[in-house]
């Protein structure tokens, strides 16, 4: 482990009244310390769990065309913007209203309950339309809200020109 080398190559010369002290050079063997370090590293590598990515299951329509048909009577359209979101039903552009992001869960549930009361609950669709100012986090948060609220049918689409004009005017 640790050795102290006390041997010296010079013969000791004694002077009157003086004794020469030998120079001591310590020698520390670091091999056990390195072994212990590698054992600890190996232990933590083998016992650590690697983080696994979480992914959302997305089912895409077959055929590759973007022309999906939805029943217009039970469609809620949500337009994501940077500070607020806009919600309207079906193709009723006059009914478009801004909503804050913090009330989205309550808003989705109220629209869902309204459609269920009209007998259209199982045909309830939500179309999410992020505009250029919406960021990725807002889009993912909205997809999470669909799962939390139990919305079975939802999709992501691009904004129409009429919708972008309406949003810019509001």
Question: Largest sheet, order of strands side by side?
Answer: 5-4-3-6-7
Given as residue ranges, the uncertain stretches (5+ residues, pLDDT < 50) are none
Helix and strand pattern? EEHEEEHEHEH
Q: How many β-strands, per DSSP?
A: 7
The DSSP helix count reads 4
Main sheet properties: 5 strands, mixed
Query: How many angstroms separate the termini?
Result: 78 Å
**Overall radius of gyration:** 36 Å
Helix content: 25-40%
Could you give a short description of this structure?
With 170 residues, the protein is an alpha/beta fold. It has helices at 31-47, 104-117, 136-148, 161-169, and strands spanning 2-5, 25-28, 75-80, 85-89, 97-99, 125-130, 153-156.
Account of the 3D structure:
The structure is a single chain. With 170 residues, the chain is an alpha/beta fold. It is built from four helices and seven strands, in the order E-E-H-E-E-E-H-E-H-E-H. The strands form two sheets. Strands 5-4-3-6-7 form a five-stranded mixed beta sheet, with helices on one face. The protein has a two-stranded antiparallel ribbon with strand order 1-2. Helix 3 (136-148) links the parallel strand 6 (125-130) and strand 7 (153-156).
What topology emerges from the helices and strands here?
Blueprint (H helix, E strand, L loop, with lengths): L1 E4 L19 E4 L2 H17 L27 E6 L4 E5 L7 E3 L4 H14 L7 E6 L5 H13 L4 E4 L4 H9 L1
Parallel strand pairs: 3-6, 6-7
Antiparallel strand pairs: 1-2, 3-4, 4-5
